Every structure is written in C-alpha cells, then in structure tokens.
Amino acid sequence: MATPNDHLKDAEYRMTGAHDALRRELNSTRTGRASTELIEHILVEYYGTETPLNQIASVTVAETRVLAIQPWDKSAVGAVEKAIQKSDLGIMPSNDGAIIRLTLPILTEERRKELVRSMRKRVEDARVAVRNVRRDVQDKIRAQEKAKDISQDETHRYLDQLQKTTDASVAAIDKTGEAKEAELLEV
After folding, report:
1. Which of 1, 53, 29 is CA-nearest to residue 121?
2. d(Cα 75, Cα 53) in Å, to the nearest integer?
3. CATH code at 89?
4. Whether residue 96 sits in one domain with residue 64
5. Of 13, 15, 66, 68, which residue is most buried, by most CB within 10 angstroms?
6. CA geometry: angle at 97 spanning 95 and 98, to 5°?
7. Are 138 and 168 in a shared domain?
C-alpha cells in the first residue's frame, strides 16, 4: 500500500510532468525568432518509413529568423522539403540542393496577440492539470486518514506539503508563461 510520502512524490512527478509538457508545447510555438523546436515534430517519409526530421538531418539556427536543415543523406533533401511544405508551419522552404533554409516571417501585431491568447490558454490548462493532481492526491491522503492509517495531524502536515508543492508548480508554470509572452510580444 502506498504511503502519503509516496503520494507526495507521485504528485511532484506528475506536476513536473505538466510543466514539462507546457514547456515543450510553448517551445514549438512560432515566435519572431528561429528555434529548432519549431520543426522537431515533423515526420519525413524516408525509405518508406515516417522518420522524425532530427534523425535524418542536422537542424541549426543560421540567423535570428532562419533555420538551416542539412540532411545527412543528400537524396533525402526532396523528402524533407515536401514534409515541411505539408506541415502546419505555413513557411515555404528554400532549397539549394544540399541545405534547406526556412526563413520565418515577421509576425504581425494581430498574430502576436492571437499567439499570446493561445499561449495563456495552454498555461491555464497546465495550472488546471496541476490542481487536478493536487485534488487526486488530497483524496488519497484523506482516504488513508479515514481508514485510520494516518492521524489527523499527519494528514494536515501532508496536505500542507502538497499545497506547497502545488504552489511551487503553479509559480513555475506562470514564470514559463510570462517568459514566453514577453518573447512573443518582443518586436
């Protein structure tokens, strides 16, 4: 049977997971600045297999708004270019035969605000996920108290620890959101 300490460790792990998922999601959000995370999710048809782009090519930030993609196998250049065109990026690649370049357009003020709204919703979803973890663990700890496995004082102590972990997770999520918002609004 799991102890309250096990439940607290599980809560911390799951809350950290929610924050990590938010970070990954926000990193793939296009800003005015080039980032390799923008294209990590793209799958390329390579010898009949859907292969992640980063497994068949090196992706680097050539300039502030330019990504350079250099497939290790020159015959894959066309497949990589086609996969980028099919993706949801909305950016046309330029190909010189060996290197594919993606030039990110400058974001309009309206698009920036739209991205900030979307980002805030994702941040709120992450906060909700953390609060759901807290509620789940609170229920487990209270059930152990009800079953007389732990005392009322221990329950309060564990619930206080849980609340501190929750507050720290929410603060970290907020900080991540604020940093991404500043990056999105930066011209």
Report:
1. 29
2. 14
3. 3.30.1360.40
4. yes
5. 15
6. 95
7. yes
Quote the CA–CA distance of 73 and 82 in Å, as a whole number: 15
Tokens for 147, please give them.
């079953």
Residues 95, 76 share a domain: yes
Cβ proximity of 146 and 72 under 8 Å = no
- For 88-111, write each residue's pLDDT tens digit: 777 788 888 788 888 887 778 887
Residue 63 and residue 116 in one domain: no
Amino acid 6 reads D
The 10s digit of each residue's pLDDT in 117-160 is 888 999 999 999 999 999 999 999 999 989 888 889 999 999 99
Cα separation, 113 vs 94, whole angstroms: 28
Q: Which helix (H) or strand (E) holds 58?
A: strand 57-63
pTM of the model: 0.71
Q: CA–CA separation, 88 vs 39, rounded Å?
A: 10
Amino acid residing at 14: R
CA pair distance 154, 149, nearest whole angstrom = 10
Show the domain range for 69. Answer: 36-103
Query: Do 119 and 82 fall into the same domain?
Result: no
